[in-house]
């Protein structure tokens, strides 16, 4: 129960920081995606199920306050957390390379999904412009923030949350 409360509190705090403080340090209206970093980190450190639920609540918060279609961001963040959880067993916590690599992959996936469902369906076909002006700067900015913030999430995971169970021990294993 304590782990769920800490995770919910961390998600709300990250949402508040992303929607207030990070907009103040945006470069060319590009802000890093702190909730994506949280979903990737929790998926890596705690598994697919926790990554999925972290993504769901992160996406619901964005949908409630900023989304045009309810559930759109919840679905994207759920996929991000779930797919990041596949590296749960093969990943070593102290190494920062795996979270950085997954953050790059998931940020590109996130932005391509936003492009496909928000712009492409409306007839805007400028993928090259969107890629060079939005996706690439956001990926670099998010990776820079990942280097700083990942250690904080790791500290929260090991000091404030209960020990994780192996996914093979869970009755809710998705195979």
Automatic annotation (TrEMBL):
The keyword DNA-binding does not apply. The chain crosses the membrane at residues 52-80, 100-121, 133-153. It comes from the Bacteria. Pfam families: MreD. InterPro entries: Cell_shape_determin_MreD_prd, Cell_shape_determining_MreD. One of its GO terms (biological process) is regulation of cell shape. It is a multi-pass membrane protein. It is found in: Cell membrane. This is Rod shape-determining protein MreD. It comes from Blautia obeum A2-162.
């Amino acid at each position: 129960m304590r782990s769920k409360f800490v995770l919910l509190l961390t998600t709300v705090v990250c949402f508040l920081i992303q929607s207030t403080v990070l907009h103040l340090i945006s470069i060319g209206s590009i802000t890093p995606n702190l909730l994506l970093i949280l979903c990737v980190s929790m998926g890596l450190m705690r598994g697919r199920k926790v990554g999925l639920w972290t993504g769901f609540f992160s996406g619901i918060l964005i949908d409630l306050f900023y989304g045009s279609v309810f559930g759109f961001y919840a679905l994207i963040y759920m996929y991000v957390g779930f797919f990041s959880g596949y590296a749960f067993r093969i990943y070593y916590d102290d190494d920062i390379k795996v979270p950085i690599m997954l953050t790059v992959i998931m940020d590109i996936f996130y932005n391509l999904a936003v492009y496909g469902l928000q712009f492409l369906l409306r007839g805007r076909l400028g993928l090259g412009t969107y890629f060079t002006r939005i996706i690439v700067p956001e990926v670099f900015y998010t990776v820079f923030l990942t280097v700083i913030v990942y250690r904080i999430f790791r500290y929260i995971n090991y000091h404030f949350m209960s020990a994780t169970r192996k996914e093979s021990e869970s009755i809710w294993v998705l195979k």
